[in-house]
C-alpha cells in the first residue's frame, strides 16, 4: 500500500488548489453499490473519474458508530489525493459522490451509506483562524445541533477522533496541523488508549 511521501504543502490562497487533500471515508449502511467496504472503494473510483490522483489509501478499519450506539459499526479509511480543485470544489465533489452513492442528509451524524469528509487542504486554515477556533472549541452538545455555514479546515474535530486519525496515520503520518502544530501521529498518540483500541483493522483483501 502506498505511503505518504510529501506533507504540509503550502497554498497561499483558498482560491488556489492545494497540492494535496486529505480525505476521511466512512460508511455503516449498505449503499446502492453494496456493503460499506464496496462503497468506499466505489467512492475512490469516482474521485479518480473526476480527476483526482490517489496518492495513498489507508487500511480499512472497523470502528464503533459515533455518537455511541448510533447504529452498526462503521468501516473507515483515509486517502491522500492530488486534484486540480480548490478546497470548496473538493467539498462539492465529495458531496456529489455521497449523493451518487445514496447518501441522505436527513439526520446530522446519522447512519449513512457514505461519509466522504474533506479533512485538510495542504496547510490552509479556513475560513479564518478565529472561526476555526470557535468551531474547534465548541461543546459536543452544540456540535450535534449546529452546522457551520462555511467550510472549516482543517476539520475542527480532527484531533479528537480516533476513527479519523488512525487511518490518516497510514497515509499522512507527518502532516502538521497548521493551527495546533502537531503531526497526525502526535494527535493520534495523544488519544485515549481505549478509543484507539476500538479502531480495528479489517482483514486485507487477498
In short:
With 206 residues, this protein is an alpha+beta fold.
How is this structure best described in words?
- The chain is α+β, with helices and mostly antiparallel strands and 206 residues long.
- The chain is 30% helix and 16% strand.
- It is built from 7 helices and 6 strands; from the N terminus they run βαβββαβαααααβ.
- It has helices at residues 36-49, 87-100, 129-136, 140-143, 162-171, 184-189, 193-197, and strands spanning 21-27, 53-57, 61-63, 74-82, 115-121, 200-201.
- Strands 1, 2, 3, 4, 5 and 6 form a 6-stranded antiparallel sheet that branches.
- The two termini are 13 Å apart.
- The relative contact order is 0.20.
- Mean pLDDT is 88; it is low at 1-12.
Highlighted features:
206 residues; alpha+beta; six-stranded antiparallel sheet; 7 helices; 16% strand; disordered N terminus
Cα Rg: 16 Å
Low-confidence stretches: 1-12
Q: Could you state the order of secondary-structure elements as H and E?
A: EHEEEHEHHHHHE
Main beta-sheet strand count, sense and barrel state: 6 strands, antiparallel
Distance between the termini: 13 Å
- How much strand content do the residues show? 15-25%
Globular, elongated, flat, extended or rod-shaped: what is the shape?
A: globular
Structural class: alpha+beta
**Total strand segments:** 6
Mean pLDDT: 88
The percent range for helix content is 25-40%
Count the helices. How many?
7
Question: What's the structural blueprint in terms of helices and strands?
Answer:
Blueprint: E1 21-27, H1 36-49, E2 53-57, E3 61-63, E4 74-82, H2 87-100, E5 115-121, H3 129-136, H4 140-143, H5 162-171, H6 184-189, H7 193-197, E6 200-201
Antiparallel strand pairs: 1-4, 1-5, 2-4, 3-4, 3-6
Amino acid at each position: 500500500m502506498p505511503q505518504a511521501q510529501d506533507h504540509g504543502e503550502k497554498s497561499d490562497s483558498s482560491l488556489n488548489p492545494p497540492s494535496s487533500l486529505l480525505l476521511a471515508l466512512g460508511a455503516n449502511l449498505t449503499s446502492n453499490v453494496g456493503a460499506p467496504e464496496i462503497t468506499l472503494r466505489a467512492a475512490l473510483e469516482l474521485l479518480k473519474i473526476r480527476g483526482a490522483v490517489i496518492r495513498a489509501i489507508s487500511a480499512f478499519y472497523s470502528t464503533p458508530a459515533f455518537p455511541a450506539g448510533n447504529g452498526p459499526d462503521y468501516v473507515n479509511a483515509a486517502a491522500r489525493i492530488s486534484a486540480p480543485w480548490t478546497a470548496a470544489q473538493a467539498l462539492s465533489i465529495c458531496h456529489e459522490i455521497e449523493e451518487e452513492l445514496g447518501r441522505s442528509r436527513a439526520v446530522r451524524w446519522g447512519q449513512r451509506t457514505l461519509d466522504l469528509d474533506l479533512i485538510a487542504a495542504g496547510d490552509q486554515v479556513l475560513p479564518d483562524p478565529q472561526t476555526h477556533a470557535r468551531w474547534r472549541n465548541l461543546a459536543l452538545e452544540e456540535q450535534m445541533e449546529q452546522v457551520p455555514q462555511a467550510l472549516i479546515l482543517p476539520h475542527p474535530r480532527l484531533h479528537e477522533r480516533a476513527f479519523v486519525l488512525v487511518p490518516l496515520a497510514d497515509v499522512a503520518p507527518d502532516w502538521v496541523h497548521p493551527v495546533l502544530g502537531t503531526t497526525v501521529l502526535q494527535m493520534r498518540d495523544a488519544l485515549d488508549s481505549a478509543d484507539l483500541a476500538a479502531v480495528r483493522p479489517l482483514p486485507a483483501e487477498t
